Amino acid sequence: MPATIIPLTPQEPLFNPQARVCAECGVRKFALFGVLDHAELDNIHVHIASLKLEPGQSLYEAQGSGHAAFTVRSGVVRLERNNERGERRILRLAGRSDLLGMEAMLGQSYAADAVACTPVEVCRLPRTLVDDLTREQPELMRDMMKRWQRALDDADEWLTELCAGPARYRMLRLLLKLTEYADGGEIWLPGRQEMSAMLDMTIETASRLVSSFKRDGLLLPTTPRHARIDHTALAAALRDEASKL
């Protein structure tokens, strides 16, 4: 997994070029360090690593020693682990500006496997860096707690909205969820096995539902792993399914 090190040690009296890389990042205002101003960024004395992953590559593994958290700059990451029956389950997805591996900030091991679904770019935030900054910047700790709560809310949403109810309704809810990670109007389209692991349904059921959505024009594939959504048709289908619950 290649890593590009972005040194943030000040080399100029004011705002150094290396720290400017972080300051000018497109997701910084949404990310954990968004609460830091330019001068505060200039005083960071550790290295932040920018990592790039290809689809299927692991960012970290469950039970692995947690020494860093990660901000997603681009792409989609899935969090997954085995259940008590040894079945692989996808717990949730993470996308642009999401913070992953927050359990590492408490010195805990990672709770799930984090795997790239698409080409992904993340920034690695060492625990020591976050520890130092949260002592000096109380608002950073509050922001991190908000992100932790958002991750818990996302996990609850997956459990209540995507793993309960009729199969067609769950699949429609998944398509709606995937629009949150759309890139240029296209969604990443999970494989049938991934859909099965997300929605607690058989691969055959997932395949049948996707085929029906394609026939109805609701799902418009552009590549084997990307598609466009007819949002009007999706909203109508969701209203129809919800009326049956």
Summarize it.
The chain is of the alpha+beta class. The protein has helices at 17-23, 38-42, 127-136, 138-162, 167-178, 192-199, 203-215, 231-244; strands spanning 3-7, 47-53, 58-60, 68-74, 77-82, 88-94, 99-100, 113-116, 120-126, 187-188, 219-223, 226-229.
Annotate the secondary structure layout:
Layout: E1 3-7, H1 17-23, H2 38-42, E2 47-53, E3 58-60, E4 68-74, E5 77-82, E6 88-94, E7 99-100, E8 113-116, E9 120-126, H3 127-136, H4 138-162, H5 167-178, E10 187-188, H6 192-199, H7 203-215, E11 219-223, E12 226-229, H8 231-244
Helix pairs in contact: 3-4, 5-8, 6-7
Domain Cyclic nucleotide-binding: 32-151
Protein name: Crp/Fnr family transcriptional regulator
Keywords: DNA-binding, Transcription, Transcription regulation
Task: Walk me through the structure.
This protein is an alpha+beta fold and 245 residues long. It has helices spanning 17-23, 38-42, 127-136, 138-162, 167-178, 192-199, 203-215, 231-244; strands spanning 3-7, 47-53, 58-60, 68-74, 77-82, 88-94, 99-100, 113-116, 120-126, 187-188, 219-223, 226-229. Strands 1-2-9-4-7 form a 5-stranded antiparallel β-sheet. The protein has a 4-stranded antiparallel β-sheet with strand order 3-8-5-6. It has a 3-stranded antiparallel β-sheet with strand order 10-12-11. Helix 5 packs antiparallel against helix 8 (231-244). Residues 5-18 have low confidence and may be disordered. It comes from Ideonella paludis. It holds the Pfam family HTH_Crp_2. Keywords: DNA-binding, Transcription, Transcription regulation. This is Crp/Fnr family transcriptional regulator.
